[in-house]
Design brief:
The structure is a single chain. The chain has 13 helices and 19 strands. It is of the alpha/beta class. It has a domain at 353-444: ANL, C-terminal domain (GMP Synthetase, Chain A, domain 3), CATH 3.30.300.30. The strands form four sheets. An eleven-stranded mixed beta sheet has the order 4-3-5-6-7-8-9-13-12-11-10, sandwiched between helices. Helix 3 (45-66) crosses helix 4 (68-76), helix 10 crosses helix 11 (244-254) and helix 12 (364-371) packs antiparallel against helix 13. Bound molecules: zinc ion. Zinc ion binds at residues 274, 276, 281, 335, 337, 339.
């Protein structure tokens, strides 16, 4: 009898069975994994490092065996996966970034050993270069994503199982909706903020989770006295700079505590504040963070540098020593809250800068530095290049802002941009956002291409 292997292999039933078994295996494995993964970041520092060593060994061996580009990278660097020891050997691996993957066919950089059912994602084009990537399997598990976003609840004493039934309202680009998770698209908020505000009042979330600038807008509406009062227990902010004044303003007006978090689109949430609100505690079960110089050589704890991340959970498309584009400081000393997982402080994205005809390129951190002394009285700011000879600093002043500060800010910015650039200080009530919902710290309004936002 004629036997057609291809027909058997690709028959719809076989495909469905394969998909079903994969999903079943994933369901079981995800639950078993979560049971011990969630405890890792609360272990003593030495235990966390031991755990990361073994996860890194496993990831590297998998990557070199099953992902062609990683075999090439290891060979090129004269490294062998079998003798790779973990954290101590990590800096020997060449750093990677979007550029490592853009322009290649997917087969070169994804796991070729099995069928993958995870959905591809694309990062926003506003960060400069649109980038399509394949997240790890856990990215689609509610257990993992909830715990990544809201584990501070557990630190504050809530039983783990109750995270799932804590009411969360999220204003984001995309998210899921369920009884305990209200998702409101950013576009809804952009078109009718008051309607969204009233929806939130009616829903009554425990946690309000959205971009910092949207939290600020909602806090303003809550403080206006003309709308019903919106009260939440926690506001979780992300994606933008959170100044001390903004934090205070949001907490006062929404009657809440603000928990800031840090993440990238490729890795998801990387770290979260604890009740000390002093840096982001790294999710060490999911990610290894290094702070390096511009040659990707690790710097001692406490130094300022590039942030590289290794995703310990993404076996679909291994991201190892991946340049996040962010800069910051890593500290390994234990926190007053008792957690020994390291903390990072993010100081911004290197790609956001403005240059003027005078020839000088000014990084947004320099603007940040120039405004540093005023941030207790500024809720938000934006630096806009209007022309080669003019820069506009838009500030959302706090109630404590004094008129004299305007001249001082002007002076401080003038020192930075030089005599040839006219400086205009413009108090505004809010900073306009990008179509995807984030506001930008620096904008080049002479350019046709949008410049990069602060952080994802
Ligand atoms: Zn802490």
């Amino acid at each position: 009898m004629y036997y057609n292997e291809k027909v058997v292999r690709d028959s719809p039933l076989a495909v469905r069975m394969s998909s079903f078994l994969y999903r079943l295996e994933r369901w079981v494995r995800t639950r078993v994994r979560f049971a011990y993964y969630h405890a890792v970041h609360r272990l003593p520092a030495t235990a966390i490092r031991t755990w990361q060593d073994s996860r890194l060994q496993d990831l590297v061996r998998h990557a070199v065996r099953n992902v062609p580009i990683w075999a090439t990278i290891f060979e090129g660097a004269g490294l062998r996966a079998r003798s790779f020891r973990g954290l101590i050997d990590l800096p020997k691996i060449p750093a990677t970034g979007k550029e490592t993957f853009i322009g290649r066919i997917a087969e070169e950089y994804i796991d070729s050993s099995r069928n993958i059912f995870t959905r591809w994602k694309t990062t926003s084009g506003t960060s400069g270069k649109p980038f399509t990537f394949l997240p790890g399997r856990n990215a689609s598990s509610g257990h993992f994503t909830d715990f990544a976003c809201y584990r501070f609840l557990v630190w504050n004493g809530l039983p783990l199982r109750k995270i799932a039934t804590t009411k969360v309202a999220r204003i984001k680009i995309r998210a899921i909706s369920s009884t305990y998770r209200a998702f409101i698209p950013v576009s809804d908020f952009q078109s009718d903020p008051e309607k969204v505000y009233r929806q939130l009042v009616e829903y009554g979330p425990t946690i309000l989770d959205t971009y910092t600038s949207i939290l600020l807008d909602l806090a303003k509406m809550a403080g206006s006295g003309t709308l019903p009062l919106l009260r939440v227990q926690y506001a979780v902010s992300f994606g933008e700079m959170l100044s001390p004044a903004s934090r205070h303003f949001i907490e006062q007006n929404l009657g809440c505590r603000v928990y800031d978090r840090y993440g990238t689109e490729e890795m998801g949430v990387i770290g979260l504040e604890c009740s000390q609100h002093n840096g982001f505690h790294i999710h060490s079960e999911s990610v290894v963070i290094e702070v390096t110089d511009d040659s990707f050589v690790p710097l001692p704890p406490g130094s300022y540098g590039r942030i590289l991340a290794t995703d310990l959970l993404n076996y679909n498309m291994p991201l190892i020593r991946y340049d996040t584009g962010d800069h910051g400081i890593l500290d390994t000393t234990p926190c007053a809250c008792g957690l020994e997982t390291p903390r990072i402080w993010i100081e911004g994205r290197y790609s956001a800068s403005l240059s003027f005809a005078s020839g000088r390129r000014i990084h947004h951190l320099e603007f940040d530095g120039a405004l540093d002394g005023f941030m207790n009285a500024i809720l938000q700011y934006q630096v806009a290049k209007k022309s080669e000879e003019e820069v506009e600093i838009r500030i959302v002043p706090d109630a404590t802002f004094e008129s004299g500060m305007r001249d001082k800010i002007k002076e401080s910015i003038r020192e930075l941009v030089g005599e040839t650039v006219a400086v205009r200080i413009l108090p505004v009530t809010s900073i306009s956002r990008m179509p995807r919902g984030k506001s930008q710290i620096v904008v080049d309004e002479t350019a046709t291409e949008p410049t990069a936002p602060l952080s994802s």
